[in-house]
Amino acid sequence: MGLHTPWEDMKRCVLNADGSVNYYLNPSDSTQKADGSAANIDGTDGNVMVEIPKFYFRHILVGTQNTWKIRTLPLTGYQLHPAFTKAGVEVDYRYISAYDACYLDATDSTYKSGLNLDDMTGNLDLVNDKLASVSGVYPLVGVTRDECRTLAENNGAGWHQLDFALWSAVQMLYLTEYADFDTQTNLGAGNTGASYVTSSSSQTDSPHSVAGKSNSLGNASTDATSGASSATRDTAFMSYRGIENWYGNCWTWADGINVNEGTAGNVHVTNDYTDFADGTTTGYTLLSSAFPTSSGYIRNILNTGAYFLSGNNTGGTSSTYLTDYHYAGAGASRVVLVGGSAFNGAGAGGFCLDSTDGAGYAGRGFSARLAF
Predict the structure, then answer these.
(1) pTM over 0.85
(2) Residues 201, 203: Cα–Cα separation, whole Å
(3) Residue 277 to residues 13, 233, 259: CA-CA distances in angstroms?
(4) Are the beta carbons of 278 and 359 closer than 8 angstroms?
């Protein structure tokens, strides 16, 4: 493990139900195991995840100049990133799904998508179905954050949907690697230039790309060419260190963050998945009371250390400052989506965020990711 480049230690693997690694994948071809033999990334051997080793960070703010430094070993002035304290226990690794989530249908043991539906509730068995990360299936959409929380937890102890702390850890790894907030310039626009049609049960009506477009890249990242946008359906994708469609393709629910609780502008977070719930501050920490309630391109960020949250949505553009868009609102008890979808264009990216929706909202552009 490198002392100064922890992002180089991110790698795809297949994870067992108990959270142990079944096997690692070939770093340059995810259809193979690390030893070159054939891998099963269709769910047969477990969920396909990206392993992220724990790291320590230091945030320095001088005037308006922010600097982040990270390392894999502790040092005075550095602190463990909060993503690696899981339910109160320090862990050496975190795992994020390699693909946008689909779901395992308990009735016939097959992996399924959300088609192009705004509401998948009637198709789901929330007691037995499971959120999943497998190649070859389109994203599950039309689900609320709470429904995705339940489906993720159905995988067993330690499983949950993407937490905002883990999302922030990936953002910090990207930022220290590229030293540039403009993810689309460095990694490509991905699947962000499409459009949505009326809700339907036809997958061909959806602008989403099927999981597995990045398999030939393995743990590598796309660039502006390989991650380019496309008007052709089911073509475009991007990947960061094995995390396919880290942004774009479809919005991703982020758990462990609640906005406008009590007062508009409040943002509360927790990295304890046992406290994940909508419309509450119980078990949460007030991170800031200055979160913007009006939308715009992000000009600067709040001084929160480990987290990348907009502090000002006025005066930015798709090519200046953070280059990503924050869809904000003043409504009470808002939940959070990250990354942007297939139609968000230049506003999508690794720092794009939506805090306009209430807990019961779902749509054909909203999906999730597994985490462990």
Answers:
(1) yes
(2) 6
(3) 29, 35, 12
(4) yes
**What is the C-alpha to C-alpha distance for residues 4 and 177, in angstroms, rounded to an integer?**
10
Write down the pLDDT at residue 5.
81
Q: Is 52 helix (H, G, I), strand (E, B) or coil?
A: strand
CA 104 to chain centre: 20
235 is written with which tokens? 């073509």
Residues in the chain: 372
SS3 218: coil
| Residue 197 confidence (pLDDT) | 97
Tokens representing residue 158 in the block: 């330690």
- List the chain domain ranges: 6-98, 100-372
- H-type alpha helices, 224-314: none
Residue 256: partners with Cβ closer than 8 Å, 6 or more residues away = 163, 164, 165, 269, 270, 271, 272, 273, 275, 276
Say how far apart CA 330 and CA 338 lie, in whole Å: 18
Tokens of 187: 């990694």
Instruction: Report how far apart, in Å, the C-alpha atoms of 304 and of each of 47, 175, 311, 351 are.
Output: 32, 16, 10, 15
Query: Which residues lie across from 358 on neighbouring strands?
Result: 334
| CA gyration radius, the chain | 19
Cα dihedral 205→214→148→338 (10° resolution): -90
Cα 232 to Cα 264: distance, rounded to the nearest angstrom: 40
Please tell me the distance from the alpha carbon of residue 12 to that of residue 10, in angstroms, as a whole number.
7
* Mean pLDDT, residues 288-295 taken together: 98
Q: How far apart are CA 160 and CA 41, in angstroms?
A: 20
CB contact at 8 A, 43 and 132: yes
Alpha-helical segments (H) within the chain: 145-153, 164-178, 183-187
247: pLDDT strictly greater than 60: yes
Alpha-carbon gap, residue 50 to 166, rounded angstroms: 12
Output the six-digit token pair for 360: 């019961």
Nearest to 213 by CA among 185, 173, 246, 167: 246
Q: Are 342 and 250 in contact (CB under 8 A)?
A: yes
Q: State residue 294 phi and psi, 5-degree precision.
A: -120, 140
Alpha carbon distance 56, 328 (integer Å): 30
